[in-house]
Write a structure and sequence with these properties.
Two copies of one chain form a homodimer.
Chain A lengths: L1 E5 L1 H4 L10 H14 L3 E5 L6 H6 L11 H25 L4 E3 L2 H4 L1 E3 L2 E3 L4 H8 L3 E5 L1 E5 L3 E5 L1 H12 L3 E6 L20 E2 L1 H10 L2 H5 L2 H11 L5 E6 L5 H6 L6 E4 L3
Parallel strand pairs in A: 1-2, 1-9, 2-6, 3-6, 9-11, 10-12
Antiparallel strand pairs in A: 4-5, 7-8, 11-12
Chain lengths: 257, 257
Amino acid sequence: MILIKLGGSVITDKSQYRTFNKTLVARLCREVKESGEDVIIVHGAGSFGHILAKENHLNDGFEDDSQIPALAQVCFDVRELNSMVIKELIEVGIPAVSIPTGSCFMMNDRKLKIDNEDILRGFVNKGIMPVMFGDVVLDRKLGFAICSGDQIMELLAKIFKPKRVIFVSDIDGLYDRDPKKYLNASLYRIVDKNIISKIKSETSVADVTGGVYSKMQTMLRMCANGRDCILMNGTAEGRLLSLLKGEEIICTRAESD
Amino acid sequence: MILIKLGGSVITDKSQYRTFNKTLVARLCREVKESGEDVIIVHGAGSFGHILAKENHLNDGFEDDSQIPALAQVCFDVRELNSMVIKELIEVGIPAVSIPTGSCFMMNDRKLKIDNEDILRGFVNKGIMPVMFGDVVLDRKLGFAICSGDQIMELLAKIFKPKRVIFVSDIDGLYDRDPKKYLNASLYRIVDKNIISKIKSETSVADVTGGVYSKMQTMLRMCANGRDCILMNGTAEGRLLSLLKGEEIICTRAESD
């Protein structure tokens, strides 16, 4: 089993409210199907979630009732995004069912808890892919908060113990500085704890990584026990399929000690 | 709190695959909003569920792998229907969140079990309406089966103890014979166990009731302890609002002994 996260930056245009990259998602779904591998997909919320969530401080938890309509709207929007992803999966012949994170599970102080694995396992055992996604989730301490796709990845990895974990992003991997600003930025092919510490001490993290730093930390937590854990660019055609077929691709691989 | 079931025959055209009665649903949502009452809505699957489910015997449980793509398609379709309903609720100013039955709960030999009420209660406590619906649901004995909106109504009534339960259908209530066939069919204003037994012994149930008989049995189970339990016609404009305001309307009321 292989666990794949389709990042919000790949499946949506993050700068435009509710813009779905249908052609790109359709291609990625075809690559998954063509590989013949047993896969579970998680996806981010992208512009279906972050824009309204930020405007209404949904990640700060409950402040006042003015957040409630926004919460319902974000839940609605990310479920529509999920429906678009599932539609593409079904169209390439992968039976998939939505498992909306905030409808099924709760958090406690921002920590997602999957207290019942039976439904997830039940679908997988029938050859149906359960698809979870970044969502607003009820929180026992904060009222509600945002649960990221990355957090879901960590939990699903604990449940399904995949041999491989792939984060599909819109960049080739982790660079030593922001590749959108510096032409001579160079890609790390392998990242371990030492490199991560070095990056952190040498530069402003926000400046260097374009948001990939915290994802790398997640990946380092997930790559223990020899699990292959990869950050790659989904906008490059055929790269996901190559990776799934076991070929070498341009990417950053997380390595535990 | 009032529990309302919007029947599949009201919110969809049951004879046409995936046909949503948007104008009618929008009006019913406005009537709920205008009443100012505290409401939870459950809805049926209508033509988004029954047609494919029947063709692929999804209610007979797992037979072979050929059912799996159909299962995924039905789950997809009913979630899209739910999304359409939620959209209308949000548009009239009712914050609502989808709780897809088969993503959140399981059945055992066709009996739905809501083993964790925290999420449902959590949304209600924040003034957000959780919306469940008829769905394909994993079944510990059968593999999977169909869970009806009526079954969800019974469970939610146990959890939320509503003062009133309303089944919104496309007929005025229970008739002594099929009103689509017999011009002189007369409407029962009140139904109790004796009337139900009489109907059953005197005629072919399928012939008489147009499918309302089993709904009436559900209603009789739900109307104990003085709870008001009503079957009414949602296609008649303003009737739901009148009922919610406490006015007398054309309907059938279930009465316990």
